[in-house]
């Protein structure tokens, strides 16, 4: 038997041409038999060769798939056994000649899709700008309006009373000029008011019991009671910042004393051979300023609160009267007087007597009894600059922004600002 070399058909050994494709048969009978026995080696010709190629390809693919499966399984086992270990290396893809179906690749080697993260826009970190320390406005700051109440004395007529010139009463008014209230109405002299540091009481001077003595009443005028007694008069009270004492003028300018605000024995602070009057406590309560007359003119003095350390800080040949501390404790405001009967102008100076400045104008009448507001932005004073009638005014410490608070047929004196 002879196999056709072209189509592989089996032909009779005596045939010269293939009975199927009519190709010429060239192999002898023994070679045909040998080829039949060694089919695997000679099948490259014809059908047998194609069958062999398909067989080899199939075996190759099966081996390749088995290798990939083993590798993937090995990687998964290593990943499970070594969770914190190094990231396993994924085998490289097979050569392009060996096409692997997509379904043959285990899902364990594919990246597991994770949920899409929600995008949150980053919050910008604000640039921190240091906030400057607040600066206290200057005393001439036009934005800050005066506040509180001002007490003063007045000889204006009181309805229903037999008014005589020596009668005075105490009033209070808001710093904006509204809310006038009369606090006393006796047929006597009631004047020289001084607020307690709490603002709840007012010390004042009255002769309703025969001689000028210091009294205390509530800030609405109720519950008045007498604090000092005796033949020696007491006047010009000034409450200490801690509310424990009231300093005052002993007698008719004979000395400076203090008395417990709740009552008790007076304590004499000065023992001088010349007149002294109108004491005023420093804001911290450590010192007292007052006016003294060592010669022809009244001058300003400063001493410790116990009477020690006395110093005269003015020396000009004119009267220096009614000194008061500014709230900063570094300056003193006072008024001058040209003669024994004419009050002059208001000045401000350092607490050691230097840097003296006049803050009212000589062309604007006579001005006196200056009293600064608690914040130091204003000064209240009495003046006769209009119609020669004494009224209450406020101004800035530099003399600007003058405003009239009272307007009456009587005279208003001795203003003092509430705490």
TrEMBL record:
Membrane-crossing residue ranges in chain numbering: 51-72
Pfam family, one: PD40
Keyword Transmembrane: yes
The entry's keywords: Membrane, Transmembrane, Transmembrane helix
Keyword Transmembrane among record annotations: yes
Source organism superkingdom: Bacteria
Family: Belongs to the TolB family.
Protein name (Swiss-Prot/TrEMBL): WD40 domain protein beta Propeller
Organism: Thermobaculum terrenum (strain ATCC BAA-798 / CCMEE 7001 / YNP1)
Lineage: Bacteria, Bacillati, Chloroflexota, Chloroflexia, Candidatus Thermobaculales
């Amino acid at each position: 038997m002879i196999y056709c070399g072209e189509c592989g058909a089996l032909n009779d050994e005596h045939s010269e041409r293939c009975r199927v494709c009519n190709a010429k048969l060239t192999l002898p009978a023994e070679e045909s038999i040998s080829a039949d026995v060694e089919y695997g080696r000679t099948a490259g010709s014809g059908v047998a060769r194609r069958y062999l190629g398909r067989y080899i390809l199939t075996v190759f693919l099966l081996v390749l798939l088995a290798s990939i499966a083993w590798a993937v399984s090995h990687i998964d086992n290593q990943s499970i056994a070594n969770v914190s270990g190094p990231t396993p290396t994924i085998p490289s893809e097979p050569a392009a000649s060996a096409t692997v179906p997509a379904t043959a690749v285990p899902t364990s080697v594919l990246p597991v899709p994770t949920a899409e993260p929600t995008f949150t826009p980053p919050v910008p970190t604000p640039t921190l700008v240091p906030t400057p320390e607040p600066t206290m406005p200057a005393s001439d700051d036009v934005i800050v309006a005066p506040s509180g109440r001002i007490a003063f004395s007045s000889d204006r007529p009181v309805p229903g009373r037999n008014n005589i010139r020596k009668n005075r009463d105490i009033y209070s008014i808001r710093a904006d000029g509204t809310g006038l209230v009369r606090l006393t109405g006796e047929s006597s002299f009631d004047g020289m008011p001084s607020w307690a540091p709490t603002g709840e009481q007012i010390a004042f001077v009255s002769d309703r019991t025969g001689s000028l003595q210091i009294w205390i009443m509530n800030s609405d005028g109720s519950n008045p009671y007498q604090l000092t007694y005796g033949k020696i008069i007491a006047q010009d009270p000034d409450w200490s910042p801690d509310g424990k004492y009231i300093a005052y003028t002993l007698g008719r300018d004979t000395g400076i004393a203090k008395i417990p605000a709740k009552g008790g024995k007076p304590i004499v602070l000065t023992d001088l051979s010349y007149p002294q009057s109108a004491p005023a406590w420093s804001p911290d309560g450590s010192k007292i300023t007052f006016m003294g007359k060592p010669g022809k003119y009244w001058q300003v003095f400063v001493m410790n609160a116990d009477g020690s350390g006395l110093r005269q800080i003015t020396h000009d040949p004119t009267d220096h009267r009614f000194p008061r501390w500014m709230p900063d404790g570094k300056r003193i405001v006072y008024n001058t007087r040209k003669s024994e009967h004419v009050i002059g102008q208001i000045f401000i100076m350092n607490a050691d007597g230097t840097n003296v400045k006049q803050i009212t104008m000589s062309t604007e009448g006579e001005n006196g009894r200056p009293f600064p507001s608690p914040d130091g932005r204003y000064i209240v004073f009495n003046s006769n600059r209009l119609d020669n009638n004494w009224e209450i005014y406020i101004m800035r410490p530099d003399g600007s922004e003058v405003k009239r608070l009272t307007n009456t047929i009587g005279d208003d004196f001795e203003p003092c600002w509430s705490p």
